[in-house]
Structures are given as structure tokens and as C-alpha cells.
């Protein structure tokens, strides 16, 4: 004779709460990208002549945020050339740390590599209380 035990359980999903947490992820992702852009600007690493590149022409593209992707886009025709040519002699009057590859400090291996993860965690906690 075998001793079989029947176990029943009921799982109720709190769908509104799940939706709230999912929406908070999207909002936290967008706010993290905004915080990153602000931090880069405050570190004064963008090449700057008129301020157009770092201000008006660099913006957050949120169009894919529901799929877990946001982009910080610089739309000027010269942004790519400046970014990928750190050997240029950048003016440092307005931004004393101006250079090419201005996001390097925030990429893996950079001194601010954990910035985005920390910011997302803090923002998500603030939004959800979790």
C-alpha cells in the first residue's frame, strides 16, 4: 500500500499589482536614462561650443521603453565624428572635461559603470516601495 497525499492549492494573481510593477519598470528605465544624461552633462564631458550637442540635440528616445530599451540620441550630423575621434583637440572653455567618447566612464569598466544599475534600483524602489 502506498501513502499518497493529495494537496490542493489555489493561486490568485493580483493582476493590478503586477501591472503596477511592470509600469514602474518602464518608468524607472526612462528616468534612469534621464538621470544618466543629466550626470554626463554635469560631468562636463560633452564637446561644447554653442551647447547644441549636449542640450537641444541630445535627447531620450523612449519609443521602445515598453520593450526594455531606451536610447540617448545625439542627432547632430557631427556627433558621431566627435565621439569616435578622441584625438581631436576639444575646446575646454565651457566644458573643462570635454572629450571624444564622452560616455566611456559610464560603460562597463568605467569609473561610473554601476551608475545606471544603482539609479534604476533607487528609482524603482521609490516608485513601488519594494
Q: How do the strands of the widest beta sheet line up side by side?
A: 1-2
Characterize the overall form: elongated
Quantity of strands, as a count? 2
Please summarize the sheet with the most strands: 2 strands, antiparallel
Note the total helix count: 3
Radius of gyration of CA atoms, rounded to a whole number? 22 Å
Summed up, what is this model?
The chain is mainly α and 130 residues long. It has helices spanning 15-42, 79-83, 115-128, and strands at 58-61, 71-74.
Topology:
Elements: H1 15-42, E1 58-61, E2 71-74, H2 79-83, H3 115-128
Antiparallel strand pairs: 1-2
Polypeptide structure, described:
This protein is mainly alpha-helical. 36% of the residues lie in helices and 6% in strands. It is built from 3 helices and 2 strands; from the N terminus they run αββαα. Strands 1-2 form a two-stranded antiparallel sheet. Helix 1 packs across helix 3 (115-128). It is elongated and about 80 Å long. It starts with 14 loop residues before the first helix and ends with a helix.
Amino acid at each position: 500500500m502506498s501513502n499518497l497525499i493529495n494537496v490542493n492549492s489555489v493561486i490568485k494573481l493580483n493582476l493590478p499589482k503586477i501591472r503596477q510593477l511592470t509600469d514602474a519598470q518602464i518608468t524607472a528605465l526612462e528616468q534612469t536614462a534621464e538621470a544618466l544624461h543629466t550626470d554626463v552633462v554635469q560631468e562636463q564631458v560633452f564637446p561644447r561650443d554653442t551647447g547644441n550637442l549636449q542640450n537641444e540635440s541630445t535627447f531620450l528616445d523612449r519609443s521602445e521603453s515598453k520593450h526594455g530599451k531606451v536610447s540617448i540620441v545625439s542627432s547632430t550630423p557631427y556627433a558621431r565624428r566627435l565621439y569616435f575621434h578622441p584625438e581631436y583637440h576639444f575646446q575646454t572653455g565651457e566644458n573643462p572635461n570635454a572629450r571624444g567618447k564622452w560616455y566611456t566612464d559610464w560603460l562597463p569598466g568605467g569609473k561610473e559603470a554601476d551608475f545606471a544599475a544603482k539609479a534604476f534600483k533607487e528609482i524603482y524602489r521609490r516608485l513601488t516601495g519594494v
